[in-house]
Amino acid sequence: VLIFILLHTWFAFDGVVYSVVGGTAMGQRHSVVLANIFMAAFFGEFFAAFPCWTSCIPFFRRFLDDVFLFWNGSWSHFQGFVHDLNTWSMENGWGIKLSIGQFAGVVSFLDLEIYKNFNGVWHTSVFFKTSDVHAYLHPTSDHPQKTFDTIPNSVAHRVRRACSEETRFFKYKT
User: Fold this and answer.
1) How far apart are CA 134 and CA 87, in angstroms?
2) Does the reported pTM lie above 0.85?
3) How far apart are CA 108 and CA 112, in angstroms?
4) Distance between CA atoms of 132 and 75, rounded to whole angstroms?
């Protein structure tokens, strides 16, 4: 089934239908599943080949190709880890090149900001990309009125869940 899906994927753009020649089209139902399988296999095989790096990583989480981890070691040691990861990827046909988005301080991961407060306690807050214009649904779109009515409440719940400190939550309250 998987081979059939990969060989028979199409998408339409600007009124023209295209066939996907390599990989899968973004937005297809199976794309997220395939990406998750691929990245799980990638990291699984890397850590099997380099078990020495696992002692430096007490916490590792991934969502598709976004990775968040705690590192027990120096900056130069971490750069060596990323170098080994990228070299292994290319030498073994994975074709993935990972880059370091952030290393310390306030770190964004998906829709969270993760930081230590002045007491050294880890906390989270909501993260918005600079390009986020907070546009959810246009009022003239073809959705039931209840959908529009629930958006403010849903956003407020998201912010409340993300903010582990009251002061950060109240920053977004107004």
Assistant:
1) 39
2) no
3) 6
4) 31
Which is nearest to 53 in space by CA: 35, 78, 29?
Answer: 78
**CA pair distance 90, 79, nearest whole angstrom:** 17
Q: Cα–Cα distance between 170 and 167 in angstroms, integer?
A: 5
Residue with token string 């993760």:
114
3-state DSSP call for residue 103? Answer: coil
Q: Which helix (H) or strand (E) holds 148?
A: helix 145-162
User: Using CA atoms, how far apart are residues 174 and 162, in angstroms rounded to an integer?
Assistant: 16
Reading the chain (174 residues) residue by residue, the pLDDT tens digits are 777 777 777 777 888 888 877 777 677 777 888 888 889 999 999 999 999 999 999 999 888 878 888 888 888 999 999 999 999 999 999 998 988 877 777 888 888 888 888 888 888 888 888 887 777 788 788 888 888 888 888 888 888 888 888 777 777 665
Per DSSP, the three-state class of 72 is coil
**How many Cα atoms are found within 13 Å in the side-chain-facing hemisphere of 141?**
10
Q: What is the rounded CA–CA span in Å between residue 114 and residue 124?
A: 5
